[in-house]
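Intended use. Records like the one below are meant for learning the mapping from a protein sequence to its folded structure. Do not use them to infer anything beyond what is encoded.
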Amino acid sequence: MEAVLSTRQSEIISLVRSRGFASVESLSTQFEVTTQTIRRDINRLSELGLLRRVHGGVEVPPNRGNITYKARKILNLDAKNAIALSVANYIDDGATLAFSIGTTPEIVAEALEGHEALKIFTNNINVAITALRNTSNEVSITGGRLRHGDLDVLGSNAEAFFRSYKFDIGIFGVAGVDADGTLLDFNEDEAAARQAIMANCRQSFLVVDRSKFGRQAHVRSGSLTDVTKIFCEENPPAAILAIIETSPAELVVCKQESGL
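Structure written out for the chain above:
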């Protein structure tokens, strides 16, 4: 498994994203470590594409597109683990599940390793391999061209694949959630595949950590009010919470275990 971010590195990301920039000296003072330690943290976070090293400090990267799969897999990992464990409690043995692309759905698949006889349908190689660790599972994956990095298949093949079945539960994440509850993605094909899952499942589970609220992306892919359950590690912002409370969607706040 990939090495995870330290608590300090995760806090540096949150701080820089809220401020836009932080100097090495201010971070050193705040976290009570040497400037050399902070520079090592900054170097790693910059290599992962989570922040950008600049003279005297670190800032938010200018590229508004998505970051690499490798970096996303370890970002907010405590929250994603809490979400995955909570989702697992809502899934019965023998269920038929559709998984979209994304690091949080993959971690949910990992949390289901102890379940029996699941039928799993996905357009992501990482989810498929994870699900195959349990030999009682049946795993189906769409054909087509794999994207580098994310190891997923998008386009008409994936959409037709998901439209061919009726799933007990669809499990998916998003790139961001706008202030009005709109679900956002960076790519039209990602949005179309997710909507194909939503249209062909009895229950839809949105798995989203709090960092996705207010995160900007440009492709619309439905609304919070379209899903059955929303799994998050803590309450979303007040405006989003108000939208959920007046909709059929149910918010499930997933407790993070101490020491995660």
